[in-house]
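Deliverable D5.2: sample structural annotation.
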Amino acid sequence: MLDTHRIRVFRSVMASGSIQAAADNLGYTPSAISQQISALQKETGLTLFEREGRGLTPTAAARSLVANTNDLMGELSRLDRVVDDLREGRSGLLTIGYFASAGAEWMPTLARRLTTEMPDITLELVLTEIPEYAGATLDLDIVIDTPGAQDPAGSRRVPLAVDPFVVVLPADHPLAGEDEVNLTQLAGDTWIRNDLPHTTCSRIFAAACESAGFQPRFPVQAQDHITAIAFVKAGVGITAVPQLAARIIPPEVRVLPLTSPTPVRHIAAVVRDPAGNSAARRAVELLQELIG
């Protein structure tokens, strides 16, 4: 089994760019860092660094090793926190996954209420849209429902909210003064993409446009809600976002309901070990209260 301390030292050298920099960052001597790297090379049978002038250059094996230890170090950090909780007498760690718009709208209040009710709990919030956290082990995961989704064994899915899409228009758009907009009325507009093409939200919107008899033209690929709305403000085009993502809107744009059809995303909470995890159950109850 690999020595995890040596792995940490090796990762520091890779991130810092040199043995001297890693020594400075970790508070060791350069000699101690070199010894740890030499021991790791012997332990693995790999050449991790090669001499180049007065410095060291990581090999392909080193780059592969550091990439494949990301998950390991994340789990070790999680274990360290569990040990700290036990040592300090805290009741445990609750890990909650969320996506960006749910995070901005719900997570701050949820975190405050949970930690007020359970002052001994350690709360860890994980933005699961970041690829490195996509497979993280979570006690509670706030997700967008997708047909046929496979939840972890022993978990339970709880519906939380129905989140219809709205259209964001420049204030001078011909339809900006309407109470609502039929999706077919926007078929000829220039659209701004606010998400990656193959995400659940993109598929929901594309299916609604298909039902309305057109395919939107996306000459601008903003790929996030805030930037897409900024493009709308500048008069570049229009965009459609889930209502939850349209809470903070500049005065230069208008937000209107979409009809015929209305794209909708369904939001749920996936609870791991629902019978034995009272903190996760309480978090779901608080979310349901927040959402109303």
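Annotation notes: Residues 4-68 form a domain with the Arc Repressor Mutant, subunit A fold (CATH 1.10.10.10). The longest helix spans residues 70-88.
The annotation will be released with the project's public dataset once the embargo ends.
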